[in-house]
Design a protein that fits this description.
binds zinc ion; 351 residues; single chain; binds NADPH dihydro-nicotinamide-adenine-dinucleotide phosphate; seven-stranded mixed beta sheet; six-stranded parallel beta sheet; Rossmann fold; 19 strands; Quinone Oxidoreductase, Chain A, domain 1; alpha/beta
């Protein structure tokens, strides 16, 4: 097919697009290769990263941009090297859509750290073609980063797992969440609610929500948490000193009590930051790290095998994303709701 074929999507043209100014228009997807699939997009979750990107919060975004990296849809076309999917299969695509698949990182299940990785939007393929995300009716992606959605998992439930879910599943799994462990999740938004659900699904003994207030208490208990810790209550960390084995932080703002979070880890405990605030990391003295032998780590997305494992675990154990679904035509209204912190806990756009 000629390179001039067109798909339709909701395009951000400048930093003001985050205020609900996406424009529905046509765009040229990447040139179709033998390794690609085309997807008729049925659902796309809305991640805070979409907002950071639209507003150029992490540095200048390359406009025009189509955000959205929690994509589910059906395969409508496949390249001749694609053997793992049939036309009509239901698949998901997350925040990474390509890596070299041959480097040390790729062969050791660390594809997110491949130096040739391509993100699903605001990025380019090696030939210079632009990568476009899922706020669209159709998408074109390398099949190697698409995943079959298990039959038991509805599309709107699976979509937000493709980024929000895997971003917490991976560090929980890699850092020992499971039987005998006490796990804390900082920030109960899209990623954070998955943190509670997956920490429980992995068999952690006790899982706590670490939130700024107790406003989400009823919800986190329904998600399986033991309780909620409110960090705006003075002296909160004293009650919890050295109680946690692992904390995964999804905090989306750097105005956070980092030293206090570290103080509630047991010696040898780990604090994994996955949230990516636009501001620099808070100032920290060496004491909180050295005096109790705790680790401060970061983590990006998850590997392909972890994505497949997470989807299977969700289908078999009944992990269910908490979503509110809106027609994609209403994306501009939903962007404003998301920016106002109204998601409980993930907005999903549907075509
Ligand atoms: P949401 O907006 O859904 O949730 C963010 C949560 O952060 C809020 O619900 C809030 O929880 C908490 N929060 C906000 N301000 C503060 C603060 N000052 N101190 C502590 N906590 C705070 O966002 P998402 O879950 O979609 O995304 C979270 C972050 O993760 C974003 O920065 C996003 O870009 C990043 N991200 C990173 C990925 C990675 O691979 N590392 C992948 C995907 C996203 P509460 O009200 O409970 O305090
Ligand atoms: Zn995301």
């Amino acid at each position: 097919m000629p390179a001039t074929e067109e798909f339709t999507g909701w395009v951000g043209l400048d930093a003001k697009s985050v205020e609900g100014n996406l424009v529905k228009t046509t765009f040229h997807p990447k040139i179709f290769s033998d390794d690609d699939i085309d997807i008729k997009i049925s659902h796309c979750g809305m991640c805070a990263s979409d907002l950071h990107t639209l507003r150029s919060g992490w540095g200048p975004t390359s406009y025009p941009v189509i955000v959205g990296h929690e994509i589910v849809g059906t395969v409508t076309r496949k390249g001749k090297n694609v053997t793992q999917f049939e036309i009509g299969d239901r698949v998901g695509v997350g925040a990474q859509c390509q890596s070299c698949l041959t480097c040390e990182d790729c062969i050791h299940d660390n594809e997110p750290y491949c130096t040739e990785r391509v993100f699903t939007y605001n990025d380019t393929f090696a030939n210079g073609d632009v990568a476009y995300g899922g706020y669209a009716q159709e998408g074109r992606y390398p099949a190697s980063f698409a995943f079959k959605i298990p039959d038991g998992l509805p599309s709107e439930i699976a979509a937000p797992m493709m980024c929000g879910g895997i971003t917490v599943y991976s560090p929980l799994k890699r850092n020992g969440a499971g039987p005998g462990k006490t796990v804390g999740i900082v920030g109960i938004g899209g990623l954070g609610h998955f943190g509670l659900l997956f920490a429980k699904a992995l068999g952690s003994d006790k899982v706590y929500a670490i939130s700024r207030s107790k406003a989400k208490e009823a919800d986190v208990l329904a998600m399986g948490a033991e309780g909620i810790i409110a960090t705006k209550e003075p002296g909160w960390s004293k009650t919890w000193t050295r109680k946690f084995d692992l904390i995964v932080s999804t905090a989306n703002n750097a105005d956070m009590p980092l030293a206090d979070y570290l103080s509630i880890l047991k010696p040898g405990g780990r604090f994994v930051q996955v949230g990516l605030p636009e501001e620099p990391i808070p100032q920290l003295s060496f004491g909180p790290l050295v005096m109790s032998n705790v680790s401060l780590l970061g983590s990006l997305l998850g590997s392909r095998s972890e994505i497949a494992e997470m989807l299977e675990l969700s289908a078999t154990t009944g992990v269910k994303s908490w979503v509110q679904t809106y027609p994609m035509e209403e994306v501009n209204k939903v962007l404003e709701l998301m920016d106002d912190g109204k998601a409980k806990y993930r907005f999903v756009l549907s075509n």
